[in-house]
Amino acid sequence: MSSDLTIPEKIITRIERTGLPLPRNGQTTDDQLPAKFLNEISFKPMGQYAYFNERYVEGDLNRPNPDHVMNLEAYAHAGIVFAGTEYGTGSSREHAPQGLLRWNDGIQAIVAKSFADLFIKNCQNIGIVGVTAAPEIVDKLVGVAQKDSSMKFVLDLESKTISYNGNKFDVDLPESRRLAFLTGTWYVSGVLLKREALIKAKEAELPYLRFE
Amino acid sequence: MAERTLLDNVWRLHKIGDPLPSGEDHIYVTGQPFHEVTSAPAFEELRENGIPIRSPDKHAAVTDHVIPTTTEGRKRPLAKEKDEIMMAELEKNTLENKIQYFAPGSGKQGVCHVVFPEMGMIWPGTIWIMGDSHTSTYGAFGAVAFGVGTTEAGFGMGADSTSMTKPKVRRIDYVGNIQPGVSAKDITLYTIRELGLKAGLKHAHELGGPVIENMDMEARLTMCNMGVEINARLCYINPDKVTYDFLKGRPFAPKRDMDKLIEYADSIKSAHDAVYDDRVTIDVSKVEPMLSWGITPDFSVGISEKTPYRKSQFKNGEDPWTILDAYTYMGLAPGTDMREVPVDVVFIGSCTNGRLTDLRAAANILKGRKIAVKTLVVPGSEQVKYDAEQEGLDRIFLEAGAEWREPGCSMCLGMSPDVLVGYQRSCSTSNRPFKGRQGSPTGRTHICSPEMAAATAIDGKFSDPRKYLRGESQ
Question: What mean pLDDT do residues B164-176 have?
Answer without folding.
Answer: 97
